[in-house]
Amino acid sequence: QPQPLSIPQQDAVAGSSSGSSSSSSSSVDGLGPLGQALLLLDMPLLDMPAGVLLMLQKYLPELPQSCTPAAARAAAAAHADRMPILQRDTQLVPLLAYCLADVDLSGGPGVCQQLLRLRLLPLADGSLAEVAEYSKAVVKGQGGQPQPQQQQQLVFVVTEELELLLVESQKHLLLELGLLGPALTAKLSLLASYGCLNLQLLSVQHLVTSFLPQLLPHAWHRAKAVAWQAAADGAAAGGAGDMPAAAISSSAGSTVVTW
After folding, report:
1. Backbone φ and ψ of 30, nearest 5°
2. Kind and range of the H or E run holding 182
3. Higher pLDDT residue, 72 or 139?
4. Which parts of 183-253 are beta strand (E)?
5. Residue 15, SS3?
6. I need a surface site. Which of 44, 55, 180, 198 has the fewest CB within 10 A?
7. Predicted pLDDT of residue 221
8. Closest by CA position to 198, among listed 168, 175, 176
9. How many degrees, rounded to 5, is the angle at CA 94 between CA 88 and CA 99?
10. pLDDT, mean of residues 183-206
């Protein structure tokens, strides 16, 4: 399989206007899903046999340049608005994997800077999220008490079965792990463990601030005490999302819970 190559001239894109429309279509198709995704990001690509590439590199050492993950990251960051037009399974996911290919994720939090502004995180609700630095800033709530800033979009890597059972209704906060596959999920889990990006692992703090307000009944919000009732009565309390208040019941029938 010939490798996609990037060269400086914009008019050297595979299937340029100087060729016929049929040859253009054939050339673009020959690049494969990753090459097609890169073309949509305005990367000039050529698809050529290895022998031709060797001749070009021998006699034109400055042209062409091999396409690299770093170049793909730059193009993806520059054209974040085009990510929704990529096919999620055949273009977006391979592009994400390619952008991570040369990043040593075992290098610690310092690697996070290489991935900023990449709108390549597929969420379980079908949308996309952009990689950003994690903001730990706080704002003052009622009574002057500090509260976590809620404006930043957080994305969570949740792989434990019991944790997924609890939060799976909040698809807008979760990576679509079934689409990513085990290898990419492992890489993103390691990246999330550094805590430097809006890509995060689920913690008690995140459960309280990002998930429980959506999972628990609206009537409980800011209440000093609530009635915790058995399943049949709890459903009428107004649970949020797909997880009704009836999901938690008390053997005593009714219990007062401080909130």
Report:
1. -70, -15
2. helix 177-193
3. 72
4. 199-201, 225-229
5. coil
6. 55
7. 79
8. 175
9. 120
10. 96
**Identity of the amino acid at 8:** P
- CA 257/CA 259 separation, integer angstroms: 6
The span from the CA of 128 to the CA of 34, in Å, is: 18
79-98 tens-digit pLDDT = 999 999 999 999 999 999 99
List pLDDT tens digits, range 110-157: 999 999 999 999 999 999 999 999 987 544 555 555 455 556 899 999
Is 124 within 8 Å of 178 (Cβ atoms)? no
188, 159 Cβ separation under 8 angstroms? no
Whole-number percent of the chain with pLDDT over 70: 70
Give 80-87 contacts, CB < 8 A, sequence gap 24+.
80/117, 80/118, 80/119, 80/130, 82/40, 82/41, 83/119, 83/120, 83/128, 84/128, 85/40, 86/37, 86/40, 87/33
One-character DSSP codes across 37-75: HHHHTT--EEE--HHHHHHHHHH-TTSSEE--HHHHHHH
What SS3 state is found at 255? strand
If DSSP codes are grouped into helix, strand and coil, which group holds residue 117? coil
Q: How confident is the model at residue 240 (pLDDT cuts 50, 70, 90)?
A: very low
* Residue 248 and residue 234 in contact, taking contact as beta carbons nearer than 8 Å: yes
Q: Is the pTM of this model over 0.90?
A: no
Compute the distance between CA of residue 49 and CA of residue 6 in angstroms, rounded to an integer: 14
pLDDT at position 82: 96
CA dihedral 204, 207, 208, 214 (to 10 degrees): -170
Separation CA 109–CA 134 (nearest Å): 11
Angstrom distance (rounded) from CA 75 to CA 63: 19
